[in-house]
Amino acid sequence: MLSIGDAFKRGPLDSKCMALLELRNATKLYPTEGAPVIALQDVSFEVDAGEIIAFVGRSGCGKSTLLNICGAMDFPTSGEIILDGQVTTRLTDAELTRLRRDKVGFVFQSFQLLNTLSVVENVEVPLLLAHRKNARQTAVERLSWLEMEQYADRFPHQLSGGQQQRVAIARAIACNPRLVLADEPTGNLDTVTGELVLKLLFRAARDFGVAVIVATHSLEVTSAADRVVRLRDGRMEEAVALR
């Protein structure tokens, strides 16, 4: 087992070889009437394109907070997050919107598909928001890649949980993001379906060169990851390189 420092050591960064994502002493505090709650404390690591990272730990250990900070949906109280060369806390609202839209895809445990839209329309939404050309064609291609094109005209309630999560993955990779963040993506699925969804999610990392970070309790996820980070009370307790 490697130490945290060894597992995440990358050597000096330069313009030719820069980590896709870097956290530098990220700390997140939530104010309360008494002492602030420490959600994350001094978390530092780097992620390269195409890597699969699993965050594991008990509920409340900071996994979801860390995912949100990595995707610029939330921000550290102190420290820095550098995503694709940009320090998230220094960006304007418009710049943050573009960063999330163009660079980050999200996959949620509860799928979060729009029930009033068809499958292909759900995948098409981020493409339309990004003003991408040929949005419908690209949406169909993403569904085809996930073997879901035959369900393009159905609505989410007409799909199984596993099918809905595959649509969610198609939506997450629709705009060719650099980073995909998945929060317990198999939590609402049975074991067999969950394993299939994971294979598809991780295949996206390999085929598209996307970095994938998964917050999970699943042993299947951790066994398939390149590196596993164990969190405890907001701190990185240990990190293990598996690949």
Task: Average the pLDDT over all residues and give the rounded result.
Answer: 86
Shape designation: globular
Helix/strand-derived class? alpha/beta
CATH domain topology: Rossmann fold
Q: What is the helix tally? A: 8
Strand order of the largest sheet: 6-7-8-3-9-10
The biggest sheet amounts to: 6 strands, mixed
The CATH superfamily turns out to be P-loop containing nucleotide triphosphate hydrolases
Task: Give the domain tally.
Answer: 1
CATH class: Alpha Beta
CATH architecture: 3-Layer(aba) Sandwich
In short:
With 243 residues, this protein is α/β, with parallel strands linked by helices. It has helices at residues 4-7, 63-70, 93-103, 119-129, 135-145, 161-172, 191-208, 219-224; strands spanning 21-30, 37-47, 52-56, 78-83, 86-87, 104-108, 179-183, 211-215, 227-232, 235-241.
Sequence-ordered SSE layout with sheet pairings:
Elements: H1 4-7, E1 21-30, E2 37-47, E3 52-56, H2 63-70, E4 78-83, E5 86-87, H3 93-103, E6 104-108, H4 119-129, H5 135-145, H6 161-172, E7 179-183, H7 191-208, E8 211-215, H8 219-224, E9 227-232, E10 235-241
Parallel strand pairs: 3-8, 3-9, 6-7, 7-8
Antiparallel strand pairs: 1-2, 1-4, 4-5, 9-10
Helix pairs in contact: 4-5, 4-6, 5-6, 6-7
